[in-house]
Design brief:
Length: about 260
């Protein structure tokens, strides 16, 4: 039996779920007894996730920034799950580069995946949820969407957009739909490891009040809580999970 009994049997769709936070969240919802369908663009990672998680109800290969791929994936959701109760729109990409070095094509690609992808998946989900007048939509945003971080102009702009999209949808579809944005800080994911050296990760830990990075499983736990009835009065929020990173600066020489 999982932590949240009301998640048992819920139909959950997760994007960007063949690795990192997405896969950890898929596993968490499976452990709660939910019926889980995952969507990812990485076919090899998707095959591995399927093989290692036989309790997955279904999966689709596709690009969340491609309207045709998204429509096709949700048609498969209809066939396999017969609808949707929870969307965890998690797919995202990042690039670490000085602003003046960002090519328009790169800027556009990040915005398309990180923001257009959220729009497309949310629209398909809410069309279906509206018929049953119930549902939960959860977006993966970032603390980078809450405050400025140099070298991440495109990523930051996309995640700020995700936060305002969540707030707007929460108002537009209240009271029957809840919508929230989860805002992780540093999380030890494959994407983070690609962008950061060990020295950079150590520096990030040193600047964090809890002196560490989050695990994908900790973020997955927040998604499960927000999807459950325990969070029934939480909507329209951008919720940081960052070890206190956005609280302010810590004193380097403070007493232990």
């Amino acid at each position: 039996m999982g932590t949240y009994k009301d998640l048992e049997g819920k139909r959950v769709v997760l994007t960007g779920a063949a690795g990192g936070i997405g896969l950890a969240t898929a596993k968490r919802f499976i452990s709660e007894g939910a019926k889980v369908f995952i969507l990812d663009w990485d076919e090899k990672a998707l095959d591995k996730a399927k093989a290692e998680n036989p309790k997955l109800s279904g999966n689709a290969h596709g690009d969340v920034s491609n309207p045709g791929d998204v429509r096709k994936a949700f048609s498969e959701v209809d066939e396999i799950l017969g609808g949707i109760d929870v969307l965890v729109s998690n797919a995202g990409i990042s690039s670490r580069k000085p602003f003046l070095d960002i090519e328009y094509e790169e800027w556009s690609k990040i915005l398309k995946v990180n923001l257009d992808g959220m729009f497309l998946c949310a629209q398909e989900s809410i069309k279906r949820m509206k018929k049953q007048k119930s549902g939960v939509v959860l977006f993966t945003a970032s603390t980078n969407g809450m405050e400025g971080h140099p070298l991440y102009a495109a990523y930051n702009a996309s995640k700020a957009g995700v936060i305002l999209l969540a707030k707007t949808l929460a108002l537009e579809f209240a009271p029957w739909l809840r919508v929230n944005a989860v805002c992780p800080g540093y999380v030890l994911t494959p994407m983070q490891k690609l962008e950061y050296t060990e020295e950079m990760l150590d520096a990030a830990k040193a600047e964090n009040p809890l002196n560490r990075l989050a695990t994908p499983e900790e973020v997955a736990g927040l998604f499960a809580f927000l999807a459950s009835k325990e969070a029934s009065y939480i909507t329209g929020q951008a919720i940081p999970i960052d070890g206190g990173e956005t609280s302010g600066m810590i004193l380097k020489d403070s007493d232990e």
